[in-house]
Amino acid sequence: SWRRVTDFPFGIADAVGLTREGKGYVVVSHPEDARTDLWEYDPAQDAWIMLRDESVSGRFTADAGFVADNRLFIFPRYPTTYVYRPELLEYDFEMGLLISLGKASRDAYDPHATGFGCNGKGYIIVEGSVKEYDPISDVWTQLQGVHPIRRQAGNAFVIGDKVYFGFGHQGKTR
Known about the structure:
- The chain is mainly β and 174 residues long.
- It is built from no helices and 14 strands.
- A four-stranded antiparallel sheet has the order 1-2-3-4, with no helix packed on it. The chain has a four-stranded antiparallel sheet with strand order 5-6-7-8, with no helix packed on it.
- It is globular.
């Protein structure tokens, strides 16, 4: 059954949600004051905690993300320049910093990509293909023989070792 939990502290339009060690994480943008935050939801306390305020270092929108090897990764988009850079950021939980890894190849990212983590690796679904990221070797691999339906801005979740992917839209069809 559904149970209501504490509301998020403010309204948001663009966000990426992730799960790590039994807690929820949301990377959100504030359109009204050009700031990007990382929030943690602790279900044991039923509370939202702001972990990172990016108002000093610049605003971005998180387009996709994943947790791999217990590490949180996101792809940023910088709306002030409208440039989609194939940059990968990692949140360092010990230091409380977002660190640019700058290692995503251009074909590993698209602004309408869908991200998820499974079995210690990160995955990005881009236009009918799947790219796998190994955080230990820091290598992206195009998976062969895996061709999900072409979707933009889709969603994915993992139960056990099965990935469920869908929603979003196909061209102008939703």
